[in-house]
Amino acid sequence: MILTKEKIDSSEFVWKALADPTRRRLMDLVRESPKTTGGLVEEFKDIGRCAVMKHLGILEEAGLITARKQGKFRWNYINAIPLQEIYERWVKKYEAQWATGLLQLKEVAEFKSNINQITEEVTMDTQQLQIDINLEIPINAPQQKVWDCLLNDINLWWRKDFYTSPNTKEFIIEPKIGGKMYEDYGNGNGLLWAEIIILDAPRVVEFKGRLTPQFGGPAMSFIRIALEEKDGTTVLLLTDTVFGNVSEESKEQLTAGWKLLYEETFKSYVESK
Known about the structure:
The protein is about 40% helix and about 30% strand. The chain is of the alpha+beta class. The protein is elongated, with a radius of gyration of 23 Å.
């Protein structure tokens, strides 16, 4: 009799996938944030694209990674469900017995902690949603002026009712790769909104941020702001792509927020300056 995947214990595929250190490293990278296949290949130049694709195929077969096509890119997401199932089957029901031995307790606690951490961050892949917000805003000002106001004057036009705390002193963008967009509460405290991942002055800036459950997540957000000058008028193109535990209600709220901030407040500030 030929054994098909359905007839084989599904955990066998998970154990096989986890047995290889390269595949474990791939999972570590994807756990940090969704990655394109091209980006993963760059991380493993020593083994080549074909080998990386083979490893990803095994991880997909085990259900540990899911892949989705978006435009010309293939995005890879981690899926913690198979790991959670192994934990439920092999660990959970024996916890009380193993608690009598300190060594076993340590192993169980560490394993459970890792599983819970992964599950908390990426279990949403089984119900992964994506929303895309696109705004096109004409501003009656030269491109360089719009760019300077966008990054250097942000504390002057960022709306105070967008602050997350009464302790916020100012809103800051560090205009450099890896620079942070954050609220400064003072004394080293604050809230990180996003980080700059692409900076091409005075044309494009891209941010990577996270939405916590408090603000409609958990989800990951990629925000792109591009400027195009046409006959003395600058068109601001804002794109916000959000992956994660999001909904149509989240999309409506985010869209309304971006319009209020950029179509009204920022546009008025630049044109009146």
